[in-house]
């Protein structure tokens, strides 16, 4: 997977769903008929890849507990298909809108994440995790299927995440995907778009009778690993 060295994403809408594996298979088939493959995907249908992410939190797990401003932003490092480059990411959420800032750096630059000095691409990330006293706490890996389409308001995207595994990880490096299987009886479906829900996604929601869930893979992983007790919403899901 390749991308610009520095990338900022405008605010966009995102809806998540939890579906059972059989429904996930049907949705994948539907998506392959209705949408284009992801330009960075691999596999027979050109739309799959392995994602591994290091998640950062404080020593008292303020991110997973949603303490103050920690509940609105996640800092993480993401790697695709074992590549020699990684994305430094901040995901900021406001209500149903999200903004993601990403910077692509060489894998060996992870050693500089604790260096907030100007002069390298990841300095902004280093400054923020230092100010917020964040450090890596776990690695989450999963298989993703991604389909996309052009829309008059901008590109839209559908992803299906499955075989989600989490393991404690305090090092600034990636391990082979392994660990506790998170949500083994569910697939996480995400729909990303700008402005109003596109007609093709409305068709999907209606056809499969989908109900949105506020779900976070990181908070599910935190509970599965037992290092923090996330705050559940009234419907039993996690924001």
Domain count, please report it. Answer: 1
Mean pLDDT: 89
Radius of gyration: 17 Å
Query: pLDDT under 50 segments (min length 5)?
Result: 1-8, 231-239
State the major sheet.
8 strands, antiparallel, barrel
Q: What fold name goes in the CATH topology slot?
A: mRNA Triphosphatase Cet1, Chain A
- Helices and strands, in order, run as EEHEEHEEEHEEEEHH
| Span between termini | 28 Å
Gross geometry: globular
Structural class of the helix and strand makeup?
Answer: alpha+beta
Number of helices: 5
The percentage helix is 10-25%
Can you lay out the helices and strands and say which pair or pack?
Layout: E1 6-8, E2 12-19, H1 21-34, E3 36-37, E4 48-57, H2 62-65, E5 73-80, E6 85-94, E7 97-106, H3 123-131, E8 135-149, E9 156-168, E10 180-181, E11 187-193, H4 199-208, H5 217-225
Antiparallel strand pairs: 1-7, 2-7, 2-11, 3-8, 4-5, 4-8, 5-6, 6-7, 8-9, 9-10, 9-11
Describe this structure in words.
The protein is of the alpha+beta class. The protein has one domain: mRNA Triphosphatase Cet1, Chain A, CATH 3.20.100. It has helices spanning about 20-35, 60-65, 125-130, 200-210, 215-225; strands spanning about 5-10, 10-20, 35, 50-55, 75-80, 85-95, 95-105, 135-150, 155-170, 180, 185-195. The longest helix is centred in the first third of the chain and has 14 residues, at about 20-35. Residues about 1-10 and about 230-239 have low confidence and may be disordered.
